[in-house]
Amino acid sequence: MSGTSGLLQLWQVPSSSLFFGRSKGLYLVPVRVMYPMSCFCKQMQTTTYAIVKGSYVSNPQNQQENKEKLTPKVENVGAFQKLPMVMPSVDILHSALRKAKRVSPTKGIANAAKRERNKGAKQIDALMKELAVPLRTYKENFPNKKYLHPYERSLIELTLGDGNYEDVLGKLEALRKKVVSVGKEHASLCAKSLSKREAEERLNEGLKRIEEIFDGDGKAVDELLNIAKTLRAMPVVDLETPTLCLVGAPNVGKSSLVRVLSTGKPEICNYPFTTRGILMGHINLSYQNFQVTDTPGILRRADEERNNLEKLTLAVLTHLPTAVLYVHDLSGECGMSPSDQFVIYKEMRERFSSHIWLDVVSKCDLLQASPVIFATDDCNVDNFELVRYRKMGPDGALNVSVKNEIGLHELKKRVYELLVSQSERIKNQQSKEEELEVPS
Ligand SMILES: Nc1nc2c(ncn2[C@@H]2O[C@H](COP(=O)(O)OP(=O)(O)OP(=O)(O)O)[C@@H](O)[C@H]2O)c(=O)[nH]1
Ligand SMILES: [Mg+2]
Fold this sequence. Notes:
Rossmann fold, binds magnesium ion, 9 strands, Four Helix Bundle (Hemerythrin (Met), subunit A), alpha/beta, two-stranded antiparallel ribbon, 2 domains, binds guanosine-5'-triphosphate, single chain
């Protein structure tokens, strides 16, 4: 098996959003954007209108049809790569003020007071629109979380914090409404001015008031800008390309194996949670493209106690159709007893039983004739499966050592077979879906 190629990265869970965490250097692998075959796509406005009593209302005949068209399909990944660019709030404000101040009064108004109030109302209106339009554009083009693929929804919740994305979009909408209502109010006051001087004062007041509002609440725009940056940097997964996901307890050697299987260079250290995010890479074998995902380790504990890193790993396994390369470290070097690893393994195996699976016992250069017994290990186990696991891992597990290059050739061969099976599974799934779509 040859021809492995690059690893793409990356996104991390910020340490502030973790419940567990030892601070370690973050790593960055160059981002390469993979375009998914099919992407979330916000539907364009297609509603047709009829004129009823001089106003435009939606044509009832088309309402049902349009409702269907306007509801985005909840299935594909790739929404983050389609997010619009967000301008910093200070740039939006300066550009809006510049444009508004260039607005001149309607031509042909001879009376100075009338001309001034016409100019004032127009400038306030222009400022209001220049600020409201980008806010509305962001609101419309940042996808509603409920229409995202569940994997991307989990990424939003685990990286930004639950509810934060919606909060920021909500603040943006509140700001837009405030700018519009204050703008209208001041434009109307200006239009009612009785003298040139009053119109000038009302104009200055109006502009200042809107500027103050945007200055204060405009930080929501900058928060959105940061959210967009974070989301865009997340690795894109192609659901149609077979993916291998490395899973196991922390520090068992997952990233070391990712390095062997692809040319990516995830950080490797001798302490838990070195990998602090989902890392996507790809392998090219016999002209076939496969994806590799390195994940943070999983601890032996209940779901409610899991940190966001562990939750990320579970999100990958829950929402993405990956094959699993499960890594076991029976040497004692990773810091977790084989018994604890056995408990986690049993839980994961049962929970994700439908995934195509390969077990690997890592660091076999360190394995001794008799298994390592931890203080936490139950020495009087009559659980045959556990006794066996401590000695040689799960049934059929492959022994490998990255350090001494033991079993790596066989590992690559087995990974290739695994991914080919995964590929067949994806094709079968696709044909089933196509059959379902063809009307009988
Ligand atoms: N002796 C030996 N050490 C290994 C081997 N593979 C990995 N290690 C060491 O095990 C430690 C952990 O390796 P990583 O690849 O970072 O493990 P991980 O599972 O990705 O760790 P987390 O990201 O923290 O969950 C490092 O010190 C590696 O050098 C091996 O085959 N033999
Ligand atoms: Mg790692």
